[in-house]
């Protein structure tokens, strides 16, 4: 397995280089002159030239690209054009608020999704199965903006159960996170439960399940000991693909609830045409996505020793 992990890490290098090339071309060539994005259309040519020199945009594109690669290798993403802060510092400061929202939401949502999937699979084609599936479809059909606006108006403004927005570190920040975390869980439950239900039901028709039932094993034990274990491979695959979003945060939830995480930072950077921040977050997200793919392969091997990582 160690050789496979090392080989996959080497494979990530050309992929990351491709991501950097695409991002650089999008923001430095296709997107036009960033100086006009910052100064506006009414800026004079002298002001544009001064800003281009200040930001290093008057250098050849090849030099700018290799300088961008040097920053990525050194994990020094430069400074934000809008706030003048070091982007690496901004990412470190934004990680804690993002993770304080996403990690509890992901853990609780994943556990609830698996448990509900087992329930609907156990009561398949019965009343509970139909009710939960209908609720899941309804939940998937409603935009997250509806949940955010309705939650803030009714639960925060009308009834005063939760703060409308804000964030604090430590235990003092829990009241600020309950509502956005609840919305995160509700939005994700619909699609997760339907997918996990399909995966679990696909296992219930296999020969090993029929054999266990023929031996007199109870249905609950069959679901928990046999079916769930074998269904965990696609479930883990789905979960690992969600891991990068735990670090990059939720754009809408952080923006609407005033959580100073990476999602909120990305929204502010887009609004301010802060290209260095956008490029850093894009690279960070691409790296995490590739790392999640590698982690998923490793977890496959742990859950099913028959799988060979070669």
Automatic annotation (TrEMBL):
The keyword Lipoprotein does not apply. The chain crosses the membrane at residues 103-124, 131-154, 174-196, 231-257, 277-300. GO terms for biological process: transmembrane transport. It is a multi-pass membrane protein. The keyword Transport applies. Its main location: membrane. Coiled coil: none annotated. Keywords: Cell membrane, Membrane, Transmembrane, Transmembrane helix, Transport. It is found in: Cell membrane. It holds the Pfam family BPD_transp_1_N. Residues 95-296 form the ABC transmembrane type-1 domain. One of its GO terms (cellular component) is plasma membrane. PANTHER family: DIPEPTIDE TRANSPORT SYSTEM PERMEASE PROTEIN DPPB-RELATED (PTHR43163). Belongs to the binding-protein-dependent transport system permease family. This is Peptide ABC transporter permease. It comes from Candidatus Raymondbacteria bacterium RIFOXYD12_FULL_49_13.
